[in-house]
Design brief:
48% helix, 11 strands, globular, binds protoporphyrin IX containing FE, 5-stranded mixed β-sheet, two-stranded antiparallel ribbon, Cytochrome p450
Length: 393
């Protein structure tokens, strides 16, 4: 099969329903593929994706990382952001925010996460259908991020409403209106919040961000606001989708579900395999700062390149029998959190949240449930893989 016979776009509903067959074709027959639907080159092999992620001088993030259909521009949605910057500024900013985003702070969240999960599960009806996304997987990460930042309890519902509006505005369909309004409201809220923490420091992430300093450098007000919004964009829907994708996968593998319920110690390894097998972030983009020749294709300076993490994670060149879901695999090299300088800052938090959530679900609910997959609605957000709704019995 040649490049001409392949058609791939991350916005194609058939691809969104099941991207894995076309990924295999891309890897085997067109490892450097031009996608008219995404106006970008597409790299799908594990080795190529990792090489690009660790070469930010060639594969730049500064012009944006979300692949968009032709004619859609998302850059106006965001203030200067860590995730859309290159070294050396990225290195400085990352050093600054890492001072606030410490492993100690993550560990301290553990017991409050458990409480949030128990509260959410208590609100689920004992009989009858409920929606896994709106009832559990959606609210959990939003509440955790709000708690981590130090958002007061009384502002929590408002915060969640904005956060949900922000992540539900769909770039693939140019539906920016509600997202822009929510982003503006969040910026205003965070600006007031930052001023408050400057005047009255507390032991929370927001105070730590305001106080973070490295080699005489601070984050500017715009960078601080951008980072707060980034935490929501990067940490909310991704975790929601990991939980939803996990619920579906474990629904399809009752023997694994039973094994995990009997052996909670196996859950951390299972989370890694869930991340590998059905990655919430299937791909993000870079822009070439110089021409690159790869697999017989000439990619020009300024071209966009979509890096398919979700395909890299299914590449048999890196993972033997890659299409087989196996929690004994220990896939340390999976790239669901990216690789290189932009490696997910929230990976430890996402892993912890998912581990605690799965343990609680296995104990209380997930153990004997039925997922109404035909009744579920997939997200249509390009390479972000998950569900808008997931009815459960
Ligand atoms: C399962 C859940 C998650 C997944 C799959 C995920 C995935 C990713 C990926 C793939 C990247 C790399 C972006 C790139 O290559 O350009 C990234 C970066 C990032 N993530 Fe996550 N993420 C998750 C949860 C979180 C959480 C919970 C937070 C924080 C609350 C978070 C905060 C960030 C930040 C701040 C960055 C940017 C780092 C930088 O540019 O240096 N993520 N994430």
């Amino acid at each position: 099969m040649s490049q001409q016979h392949l058609t791939y776009s991350p916005f194609d509903p058939e691809v969104i329903a099941d991207p894995y067959p076309i990924y295999r074709q891309l890897r085997d027959h067109a490892p450097a593929y031009w996608s008219p639907g995404a106006s970008s080159w597409v790299l799908s092999r594990y080795h190529d994706v990792c090489a690009a992620l660790t070469d930010p001088a060639t594969y730049s993030s500064a012009s944006g990382i979300f692949p968009t259909p032709p004619g859609v521009d998302m850059t106006e949605l965001f203030l200067p952001m860590l995730i859309m910057s290159d070294p050396p500024r990225h290195t400085q900013m990352r050093q600054l925010v890492s001072k606030a985003f410490t492993p100690r702070r993550m560990t301290e969240l553990e017991s409050s996460i458990q409480t949030v999960i128990d509260d959410l599960l208590d609100q689920i009806p004992d009989t009858g259908p409920w929606d896994f996304v709106s009832g559990f997987a959606g609210p959990l990460p939003a509440i955790v991020i709000a708690d981590m930042l130090g958002v007061p309890r009384e502002d929590r519902d408002q915060f969640r409403t904005w956060s949900t509006a922000l992540i539900q505005s769909n770039p693939a369909h140019g539906e920016f209106g509600p997202g822009l309004a929510a982003a503006a409201a969040l910026y205003e809220y965070f600006a007031g919040f930052l001023a408050e923490r400057r005047a009255h420091p507390e032991d929370d992430l927001m105070t730590a961000l305001v106080q973070a300093e490295a080699e005489g450098q601070h984050l500017s007000e715009e960078e601080l606001l951008g980072f707060c919004l980034l935490l929501l964009v990067a940490g909310h829907e991704t975790t929601t989708n990991l939980l939803s994708n996990s619920a579906v996968l474990l629904g399809h593998h009752p023997e694994t579900r039973q094994k995990l319920a009997d052996n909670p110690d196996l859950v951390p390894a299972a989370v890694e395999e869930l991340l590998r097998y059905d990655s919430p972030v299937q791909g993000l983009a870079r822009t070439l700062s110089r021409p690159v020749d790869l697999h017989g294709q000439h990619m020009q300076s300024g071209d966009t390149v979509l890096l398919l993490y979700g395909s890299a994670n299914r590449d048999h060149r890196a993972f033997p029998n890659a299409d087989h879901f196996d929690i004994n695999r220990r896939p340390e090299r999976q790239v669901a959190f990216g690789r290189g300088p932009h490696f997910c800052l929230g990976a430890a938090l996402a892993r912890m949240e998912t581990r605690i959530a799965l343990n609680a679900l296995l104990k209380k609910r997930l153990f004997n449930w039925d997922i109404d997959l035909p009744g579920a609605q997939r997200l249509h957000s390009g390479p972000i893989r998950g569900f808008a709704s997931l009815p459960v019995q």
